Amino acid sequence: MDALGDLLRGVRADGALFDRAVLTGPWETGHTEGAALTLITVLRGSARVTVASGEPRTLREADAALVCTTAPFTLASAADDRESELITGAYQLDGAVGRRLISMLPPLLVVPSGEDCLPILELIAAEVAADRPGRQYVMDRMLDWMLACTLRDWFDLPEACPPAWYRALGDEVVGPALHALHDEPARPWTVASLAARAQVSRAAFARQFAELVGRPPMAYLTEWRMTLAAELLAEPGATVASVAGQVGYADAFGFSDAFKRTRGISPSSHRASLTAGGKGAGALRVAG
Questions:
Q1: Partner of 72 at 20 to 30 A CA spacing, among 209, 242, 257, 263?
Q2: What span, in angstroms and rounded, lies between the C-alpha atoms of 61 and 86?
Q3: What is the dihedral of CA 111, 70, 2, 279, to 10 degrees?
Q4: Which CATH superfamily is domain 3-155 in?
């Protein structure tokens, strides 16, 4: 399992709307749209971003910031730059997997400029300014690419606070078990079989897993299965029975009980709410 890829499950832009702004002199702009994730990159100059729950952070050229809150925030000039150029793109929260990602991030994270993301910044700037065939599809993928680059670089920073299970992937005992759970969630796992995968005793495995991840192995597996199920239920043609099988339940009744116990709503009600809201399968959709 690729841990970052797993966090980004279902995060896919569809109809991305980039905002490219060239700003001069002292300036300030408020953002109140309520997007769940707003990605900000500085192409030239600098900017200051402030969210309600924290101190202002300054962005320099080629820096990126991710605002992970639906609360309003502001962007403002940060220095005496004669001109600053910014590009922003936003995702709206749509589903369970997206909420999982949001819950694991701080309200504001900033990533200093890095060589990995510089090429995509130049491509984004060129694509936003152009009107070429396939432009929308290209911009959608660019937003997804930039989000992945930003999160990957942030997780590598010493001050980052990735989720407990993400950190536990590097543990020689718990890591192999987590990989197994995420790679094969439908398999009939037991604490004993996971301990065997980790090559330790059942008691030692259960203790270390709970210490590092924050919950017992089977509780974590159930939570992960229900998160996947919530995403699968949003797919066209999905049934409660078909989703139950995909996440490791032999019958729809047992699955429905687990889903309602974990998420507080039945699978059919969850699916109906998605249909009523006109939401698709993606866990995050682009704000448009």
A1: 263
A2: 9
A3: -140
A4: Regulatory protein AraC (2.60.120.280)
